[in-house]
Amino acid sequence: MQTTQGLDQQTIDIVKSTVPILEERGSEITTAFYKRMFQNNPELKNIFNQTNQRKGEQANALANTVYAAAANIDQLETILPAVMPIAEKHRSLNIKPEHYPIVGENLLAGMREVLGADVATDEVLAAWEKAYGEIANVFIDIEENMYKNVQRQEGGWVDYRDFKVVKKVPESDVITSFYLEPVDGEPIATHEAGQYITIIADIPGEDYKHQRQYSLSCAPTEGMYRISVKREEAIGDNPKGVVSNFLHDQVKEGSVLPVSAPAGDFVLKNTERPLVLISGGVGLTPMMSMLETTISLNPERDVTFIHAAQNGNVHAMRERVQEITNEHNIKSHTIYAEPTTECEGKYNKQGYIDYEFLDSVLPGKDADYFFCGPKGFMQAVYRHLKDYGVAEEDINFEFFGPKQDIAN
Q1: Contact, 240 vs 233, CB < 8 A?
Q2: pLDDT tens digits for 157-206?
Q3: Does the active-site annotation cover 43?
Q4: For 59, which of 22, 165, 216, 319 is 20 to 30 Å away at the CA?
């Protein structure tokens, strides 16, 4: 792929010279960019997660992407592994080529606003305008192929399709499952274990629609998807939980939600190697899809399933995991941070996942490892697996929300 065919050496040199500035002030630039873009194009609030905007996570994620692109502007193919998960999310959110010029214009204006005209000179901005065009083309080309691929799938679709909630099942005090079937009754795309869908929540009283991505929590099932959603609590003015509370409180059996086709590259590897699935809290959802898929496709596979929760009241799908454990070659372990008296006999360890516990239950470093959960939980698991000797290529994880640095 000729990713920098339109860039001359002077442009490349100028962009690379900005790398130290982006490393230091990238988040300031991207924060200013988002503020400016939403002022100029408020309709984009229908696409971007405003909770992540207020928490700063989206700005930090974009800053890291821009920094990496600048550092590798003469060899953009080296950042493709980082581009792919972002492109998957863009496809799930139905980002289109016409959105990229809007982003570019406001990003350059954000640079000038934060850095000032003495640093973000006309020459620097002209170089970045060319570089951004190359970076945007990489995303546009990849996403175009993704849109084509999903259309080629049996039951696949682009944009949104109406799904009816045919069943709503409480799984714990805080997690509820929603079973979704297409209103048109036509086939739907088969998802891979670990993928997610995007739903549109049109919430009464809200100025803009909200899009949220939720992992599919079941094995591929003909004609149906299942998501399992944790009720999040809003804190002060933080709108966290606006969509999850809408789903829990206002969406009923029979309600209709617009849904995009399954997306994501955090997917199960169907090999003969031992499989280890580790989850914390609602990070259980993609792990359940992987577990149910494994017992369907490869029931003899050596599987270790580890789940950490606060206590049994918030532990979703415990009975289903126990049922699978009893019927298949599954080694299941449960950790409760603060077990209640009713939890007696229903967990293996009190406290938190630590190296000693993992060392006692893992099948060895030669295995496929997948984990998901809150950021701090995932960082601890990652460190323990690295100390245990698991190779980087065998460690698979996904953040709920913008991509973050697992090591920091």
Answers
A1: yes
A2: 999 999 999 999 999 999 999 999 999 999 999 999 999 999 999 999 98
A3: no
A4: 216
pLDDT in tens, 390-400: 999 999 998 87
- Give the active site residue among 143, 171, 192, 292: 143
Query: 34, 67, 100, 196: which one is catalytic?
Result: 100
143 is catalytic: yes
Domains and CATH numbers, the chain: 9-152 (1.10.490.10), 161-259 (2.40.30.10), 275-397 (3.40.50.80)
